[in-house]
From TrEMBL:
Keywords: ATP-binding, Cell inner membrane, Cell membrane, Membrane, Nucleotide-binding, Transmembrane, Transmembrane helix, Transport. Residues 564-604 are annotated as: Disordered. Belongs to the ABC transporter superfamily. Siderophore-Fe(3+) uptake transporter (SIUT) (TC 3.A.1.21) family. CDD domains: ABC_6TM_LmrA_like. GO terms for molecular function: ABC-type oligopeptide transporter activity; ATP binding; ATP hydrolysis activity. It comes from the Bacteria. SUPFAM superfamilies: ABC transporter transmembrane region, P-loop containing nucleoside triphosphate hydrolases. Residues 328-563 form the ABC transporter domain. The chain crosses the membrane at residues 52-74, 127-147, 153-173, 231-256, 268-289. It is a multi-pass membrane protein. This is ABC transporter ATP-binding protein. It is found in: Cell inner membrane. InterPro entries: AAA+_ATPase (IPR003593), ABC1_TM_dom (IPR011527), ABC1_TM_sf (IPR036640), ABC_transporter-like_ATP-bd (IPR003439), ABC_transporter-like_CS (IPR017871), P-loop_NTPase (IPR027417), Type_1_exporter (IPR039421). It comes from Streptomyces carminius.
Length: 604
């Protein structure tokens, strides 16, 4: 992210705000001189109306300029933070899945929300403050030198020492503040981790353990926060001591000189007023410097997050290929996750027609999900080509690819909102007729009709209020509304009740007449019904065919089919790993791990 380009975009507001601040400072600097004139006029018994009117006008101008300066700089800061957050969210939403998955969500949240706010202060008010406070400091020193350079030397000596101490403190504040940001971020990440798995935490009776871990993280943040406060608390007194010492010296020495007549009373009064004026901009200068340093650390963190690897959205929209093109085609595809030795998918080739149901089966870790990742281009193959409707997915713009390929995940995440809002998420403009048609095709209509508010029923976070099977059918209906050419379905592994299972099976069959349904099958019913079955093992396509054909020819398939048909009432094992020793030559339909296929199933 180009932060300086963002700041440049708002340079007009920043420049006008800073100029007004400088004008306000000039008005402040003139006040003691005019008050000196007033004292002189009173002493000489001259008319005082002019100096009083001038002083009043200067006060009013000062107030107006300060308020406008504050407003304009604040507004520029908000504009800058908006630009930073918009750029960041855009980059996060377009990040590559594999890069995003490496990020800690709590940290992403802290960088996007809190660090951008700190960067805003550094880029707007701190810079403006440094300019105006620097100007005031230089202005004060110039006028004081003009009034009495010897007393200025005393003042600079005392305040200079105090400033050196304050500068060292400001540096220490910055270091402590950076640690505090990291500690706060760690607490945020810890909290999100626990809240994201609250059910598991409760089921594992880990509440007390997690509470203690979070308390430790919060305590670390408290510790570094207290350190920031302790150091900041010493900043002001350090300057105060410097001011008090220089004030005492200036008053004592100044009064002695007024008595001898070598210094006028009005010059001494003006000098003392400038001395007071000098302290607050000096403190402001150090504070602004500290904030700017903190902001720089925050900007670095924001920049780091913005550098997250982006999806390559390139490619040109090709003409829709002729209907004869395969819906999905893998041509000798090999892919391995970075940092792993064995490829997750190795030399896989297959071709699927425009319609029908294809089931992918295989033991856990066989590479089933990876096939989906390659089709959706969440990952790019190391070798070989993946084609959708005849076009290499690498050449398709991502938007076009994902319009053609719909994905229904195993957990089928739903958003808080109504059933209708969830259904039309990918097609907000869908008509009532289209919604009804999709709902019926997904065999979800009877569920909607039974809901108290129908399509307008509110669902909780993650679609609470619907069963796992109902959630998946809703997600299928949602995918259908986008009229995909390919539907990728990661079947729910949860133990669906028989009604839900029958409905899901019917939905898959219906959808298979409209497009190609590629389903990671966790239940034998889908496999039995599928037009074709791909058997994966260790990333390789081991066999392909129909249920009956594979039952006759493939040992692994026979073993998987046998294991997946658990005895009635038992939890079906969704993705069993082959047992040591049984390997590819398992005992198949006769396995003792599950019941035998029914004759009807086996015959299909
Ligand atoms: N993000 C990842 N980083 C590294 N390795 C991964 C990653 N995701 C999967 N793998 C590895 O790739 C291989 C294939 O995984 P994949 O998830 O495709 O298998 P699967 O057949 O879908 O398994 P399951 O049915 O258990 O979900 C496995 O060995 C797995 O450990």
């Amino acid at each position: 992210m180009n932060i300086s380009a963002i700041v440049r975009r708002h340079r007009l507001l920043l420049a006008v705000g800073t100029l007004l601040g400088l004008a306000g400072t000039a008005a402040t600097l003139l006040q003691p001189l005019l008050i000196g004139d007033l004292i002189e006029a009173v002493a000489l018994d001259e008319p005082v109306t002019r100096p009083i009117v001038l002083i009043a006008a200067l006060f009013a101008a000062d107030a107006l300029l300060a308020a406008t300066h504050f407003y304009l700089i604040g507004r520029a800061g908000e504009n800058i933070v908006l630009d930073m957050r918009t750029t960041l969210t855009g980059r996060l939403l377009h990040s590559r899945i594999r890069a995003f998955n490496r990020l800690e969500h709590g940290d992403v949240f802290t960088r996007t929300v809190a660090d951008t706010a700190i960067a805003r202060i550094a880029l707007s008010s701190s810079v403006a403050q440094m300019i105006t406070a620097g100007f005031t400091t230089v202005g004060c020193i110039a006028v004081m030198a003009w009034l009495d350079w010897r007393m200025l030397l005393v003042t600079v000596g005392c305040l200079g020492t105090a400033s050196a101490v304050a500068l060292a403190l400001a540096r220490a504040v910055r270091r402590a503040a950076v640690t505090n940001r990291e500690d706060t971020s760690a607490y945020g990440s810890g909290l999100l981790r626990v809240l994201g798995a609250l059910t598991t935490v409760k089921a594992s009776r880990a509440e007390a353990r997690e509470a203690e871990r979070l308390r430790e993280l919060a305590d670390a943040a408290r510790g570094s926060g207290v350190r920031v406060t302790r150091l900041s608390a010493m900043l002001m007194p350090a300057m105060n001591v410097g001011t008090q010492v220089s004030l005492a010296v200036v008053i004592a020495w100044g009064m002695a000189r007024t008595a001898t007549g070598s210094l006028s009373l009005e010059d001494l009064t003006a000098f003392i007023m400038y001395l007071f004026y000098l302290v607050s901009p000096l403190v402001m200068l150090f504070m602004a410097l500290g904030e700017f340093q903190q902001g720089r650390a925050a900007i670095d963190r924001v920049r780091e997050l913005a550098a997250v690897e982006q999806e390559d959205t390139g490619g040109s929209v090709p003409d829709r290929p002729a209907g004869s093109a395969a819906a999905v085609e893998f041509d000798d595809v090999t892919f391995g996750y970075p940092g792993t030795s064995a490829p997750a998918v190795a030399g896989v080739s297959f071709s699927l027609p425009a319609t029908g149901v294809t089931a992918i089966v295989g033991p856990s870790g066989a590479g089933k999900t990876t096939l989906f990742q390659l089709i959706e281009r969440f990952q790019d193959p190391d070798r070989g080509t993946v084609r959708v409707l005849g076009t290499d997915v690498a050449a398709l713009p991502l938007d076009e690819l994902r319009a053609r390929v719909a994905l229904v995940e195993q957990e089928a995440p739903l958003m808080r909102g109504t059933v209708r809002e969830n259904l039309t998420y990918a097609r907000p403009d869908a008509t009532a007729g289209e919604i009804r048609e999709a709902v019926e095709a997904a065999h979800f209509a009877e569920v909607v009709d039974a809901l108290p508010g129908g399509l307008d029923t509110e669902l909780g976070e993650n679609g609470i209020g619907l069963s796992g099977g109902q959630r998946q059918r809703l997600a299928i209906a949602r995918a259908l509304l986008a009229r995909p050419d390919v539907l990728l379905l990661d079947e729910a592994t949860s133990n669906l009740d028989s009604d839900s299972e029958t409905a899901l099976r019917a939905a898959i069959t219906t959808v298979g007449t409209r497009c190609q349904v590629l389903t990671i099958a966790h239940r034998i019913s889908t496999v039995v019904d599928a037009d074709r079955i791909l058997v994966l093992e260790d990333g390789r396509l081991r066999a392909a065919g129909t249920h009956a054909g594979l039952m006759a020819s493939d040992d692994t398939y026979r073993r998987l089919a046998g294991q997946q048909l658990a005895p009635t009432g038992a939890e079906p094992k969704a993705e069993p790993r082959p047992k040591a020793g049984t390997g590819a030559t398992g005992t198949g339909a006769e396995t003792d791990a599950g019941r035998r296929l029914t004759p009807a199933e086996a015959a299909r």
